[in-house]
Specification:
alpha/beta, Nucleotidyltransferase, domain 5, 3-stranded antiparallel beta sheet, elongated
Length: 266
Amino acid sequence: MVEDEIIAKQLEDLLSPAITAQENYYRQLGLRDRILNLPLMMASVLTLLWRDVAGVRELTRMLSREGFLWCTPTEVSQQAISQRFLTFPAELFERVFKQLLPELRIKWHSRQQRPQPESIEFARTKFERIWACDGSTLEAIFSKLDSLKEVPMGQLAGKMGVVIDLVTRLPIEIWFHENPKASDVNFESGILTLVQAKTLLLLDRGFYHFRFWQQLIEKDVDLITRLKKGASFQIQQIFTDSYSIRDRLIKMGSGTEKVPYVTLHK
């Protein structure tokens, strides 16, 4: 893809303050301000994604011929960039991204709003926040560098947990675990620290954990999730039982510390 100058300028204006703000932390990590520094590595990752660059070889050619985003043409070897990608601290990208989020929220609220789905508009009249939580296993690396040839084929890249604001569609928090087989329950403590009262939380079924649900309820947080097939529950009260809607108060759990009783609508 050809670089669009207007979009490139917008990205530079948006990212430059956030990148500059990380320079002290960059030095604290003992990283030298050499050619492949934070601004260039940030531009490289954005260019790989935005312009659908095939790989590091083509990225190196682009950098040498024309540069990209805020980077002027620079001669760097493909091996140097490959090694830099493997050793560059991912937390620097995370810190830049999280510093951008408040600015992105301000921009979202200031621009002309698109109509929200009716379900979201209704929920906003009842709750101060509408968030969704999900865990996802990252795909295996399917195109390898020579420096990764010792990594077993098909090895998954880890596990990510995300909390999204369904109104702005911007992330609230992102977590990462290197173990791709880690359960979603590993993200529960982070979610409990994050959520506040008057929040509606949409949970993926990976968070099917009664104690976690009870802790959310105690924090005055409402939740929506799917029941597992064959789930056992007791009907406490029937509010509506029609062809299109069934609204019942149910009790689940065994009353133990690990699986406490929880009362929910179904």
